[in-house]
Amino acid sequence: MLKPSLFKPLKPGFHSIISFTAIFHKCKSMKQFKEAHTQFIINGLTHSPSSLRPIISFSALDPSGDIDYALLLLLRASTPRTVYLFNTTIRGFSRARRPGSLWSSVLLFVQMGVLNLAPNSFTFTFLFQNCSNCVAFDLGRQFHGMVIKNSFETDVFVRNSIIRFYSVCGKLDDARMAFDESSELDVVSWNSMIDACIRNGDILEALSLFSKMPERSNISWNSLLGGLVKFGCLDDAYWVFLEMSQRNIVSWVVMISGYAQNGKPKEALALFREMQMLDQEPNSAILVKIIDLAMQVFNTSRERDVSAYTAAISGLAMNGCSKEALHLFDQMKSEGISPDGVSYIAVLCACSHAGWVEKGFHYFASMSDVHGIRPELDHYACMVDLLGRAGLLEKAEKFVASMPIKPDNVIWGALLGACRVYGNAKMGERVGSLLVESDKTHNGRYILLSNIYAESMKGEDAEQVRKTMRRRKIKRVPGCSLIEIDGCLHEFFAGDRSHEKTEEIYLMWEEIVKEIKKIGYREETRTVVFDVEEEEKEAVIGQHSEKLAVALGFLYTTSGSTLQIVKNIRMCNDCHNAIKLVSKVFKRKISIRDRKRFHHFEEGLCSCRDYW
Q1: Are 417 and 424 a contacting pair, CB within 8 Å?
Q2: How many helices (H) and strands (E) in the chain?
Q3: Cα-Cα-Cα-Cα dihedral of 340, 341, 345, 346, to 10°?
Q4: H-assigned helices in 402-458
Q5: Closest alpha carbon to 555 in 501, 612, 592, 595
Q6: Under a CB-based contact definition with an 8 Å cutoff, are residues 234 and 264 in contact?
Q7: Residues 6 or more apart in contact with residue 504 via CB below 8 angstroms
Q8: In sequence order, what E strands does 353-505 have?
Q9: 3 state SS of 368
Q10: Is the pTM of this model over 0.85?
């Protein structure tokens, strides 16, 4: 919220416009921009290009912006407008990828001509991005003619956007012609052409181009690696993988996924172990596959030790198969294999995920009484999590107080999470206030405490927690979901509009919501702390990354097939409830691995039994 003192009445004039321009540059949200703009108008001021620039840039390009506001300002402004302002708005429409984005961009392009503003190379770059998004071949072809007429074909940015445009439209020959006719090629040009070959099924030409590249980036290597895996050339893919001088997480994901998808679990696990030895941090997409592969290898293995059993028990527990996990634990003991501390962590997790409090305490006691294993912090954390998930918050707090060792932030964090799930604001405030001081750099502590306040209708307290985050420069980890379709990983963030099928994705989710509302779905908006109308809160909730991933899955998978999604943070209550209903209405199995566990949705139920 901008300070009211910034909006003192000013006498119209040059200096007051400069003052407001400075204010516009400080705005961080559309609400602040609109407040400042209202005062600008009240003071009787008219825009200069410099005062329009920050408003239109933010409105058009920021994820929380308002492209319609940018368009309105640009078309109604009485001041002379610049090519930069038109380009920025056209670029905004290319990012928005909503119905009518392409034709709004064309309207702006035509308006530039009316105002005698000559388009530049950036204008055409953004127009080709719009055409690629909508696969508008005929229109893009016309823009290509204008590029040649205006002598922009030598510009490397325009050239690269043309190559991608023809590639997306399935016109590989035209893309290659644009590539070959260029007098100046950069690494992006080569990458775009290789991607065009892979996208259009010519893996041999992609290999040929790769071998001729004067310089290569990580994107070059990963693009070819992904193409070889896509076409089942695993030996060639592994050779490329070994030749890479620098492998990032994408390289490992692609190669491990390639082995997993082609029936080679042992090779995938061996590569995963190599990844761990090199201190590469695996992401959730890899972990999902590794757990499945570990179970495959366990079931076919003749020699099983405590490590193999523990891995299998843990995998079953995370997949909601707690009964099977405990059965396997008993089988391990019957074969004369003594469990270790890690085995008991897996068993206690199985009890926690199923809500089995008595069984959990039985196994916790048997650790020391039967096997002489002294409980460590991880075991105590499991017990606090077990009590917290079952809603026994006071018992959990007393358990923490009775611990013979000092509880760490993980234990307090488990209790805080339970306070949020069960709406215990009083205990949550007490535990959360402790955590944000003892674990100052952990963004999750602030988010949980803020959400507890928000759900308790304490918006001012929630905002104060977020202000503390900003003051301490703690950044929130954005929610991200991955879905694999036909061997390709698609990544989404909340409110994401970067996917080439954004328009269809959002329309699909709208249709899904219409159907699940018929059986009682209502958006849960309590955790949205912004000062906006309820309808806007529903829009924010409806754009969470896993919902976008589900919508894409509905678009590009066959009815009845299982959707497999990975999310890097805990699912919110609304997404969990919505996807349960989706599985019921559409008769689809949906598996989602969030930061906590696996969720297998089927017939309106989840394997977590709503404990997560």
Answers
A1: no
A2: 31, 6
A3: -20
A4: 409-422, 425-438, 443-455
A5: 501
A6: yes
A7: 555
A8: 480-485, 488-493
A9: helix
A10: no
Q: Which residues contact 36 (CB under 8 A, 6 or more apart)?
A: 2, 6, 7, 20, 23, 24, 27
Q: Which residue has the tokens 């035509």?
A: 110
Q: Is 600 in a helix, a strand, or coil?
A: strand
DSSP 542: T
8 Å CB contact between 259 and 268: yes
Q: Which residue has the tokens 């523990």?
A: 310
As a whole number of angstroms, the distance between CA 61 and CA 83 comes to: 16
Separation CA 248–CA 222 (nearest Å)? 9
Enumerate residues 6+ apart whose C-beta is below 8 A from 34. Answer: 69
Q: How confident is the model at residue 541, as a pLDDT?
A: 53
265-311 pLDDT per residue, tens: 778 777 877 776 676 665 556 666 666 666 666 776 667 788 778 87
Q: Which residue type is seen at 89?
A: T
Q: DSSP label at 478?
A: P
CA–CA separation, 223 vs 167, rounded Å?
14
Distance between CA atoms of 476 and 473, rounded to whole angstroms?
10
- Name the one residue in this structure whose structure tokens are 């503390």: 468
Residues 13-72: pLDDT tens digits?
A: 444 556 667 777 777 778 888 888 888 888 777 777 777 888 899 889 887 788 999 999
DSSP 566: E
DSSP 8-state assignment for residue 79:
S
CB 269 within 8 A of CB 297: yes
Between β-strands 598-602 and 480-485, what pairing exists: parallel, antiparallel or unpaired?
unpaired
Say how far apart CA 138 and CA 79 lie, in whole Å.
35
Helix (H, G, I), strand (E, B) or coil at 598: strand
Q: Give pLDDT tens digits for 82-125.
A: 999 999 999 999 988 777 899 999 999 999 999 999 999 999 99
Neighbours of 60 (CB within 10 A): 27
Q: Using the 8-state DSSP alphabet, how is residue 341 labeled?
A: H
Largest CA distance in the chain: 88
What stretch of H or E contains 113?
A: helix 101-114
In angstroms, the Cα distances linking 68 to 74, 101, 591 are 10, 10, 37
- Which is it for the CA torsion 469, 285, 289, 254, positive or negative? negative
What is the spatial distance between Cα 195 and Cα 199, in angstroms, rounded to a whole number?
Answer: 6
CB atoms within 10 A of CB 601: 24
Task: Show the tokens assigned to 68.
Answer: 């319609």
> Phi and psi (nearest 5°) for 366?
-70, -20
- Candidates 405, 30, 135, 319; CA nearest to 311 is 319
- Residue 143 has which token pair? 């823009």
Asked whether the CA dihedral 107, 110, 115, 121 is positive or negative, the reply is positive
Provide the sign of the torsion angle of the four alpha carbons 73, 76, 79, 80, taken in this order.
positive
Q: What is the 3-state secondary structure (H, E, C) of 46-63?
A: CCCHHHHHHHHHHHHHCC
Residue 502 and residue 506: Cα distance in Å, rounded? 6
Q: How far apart are CA 543 and CA 217, in angstroms?
A: 33
For residue 245, give the amino acid letter: S
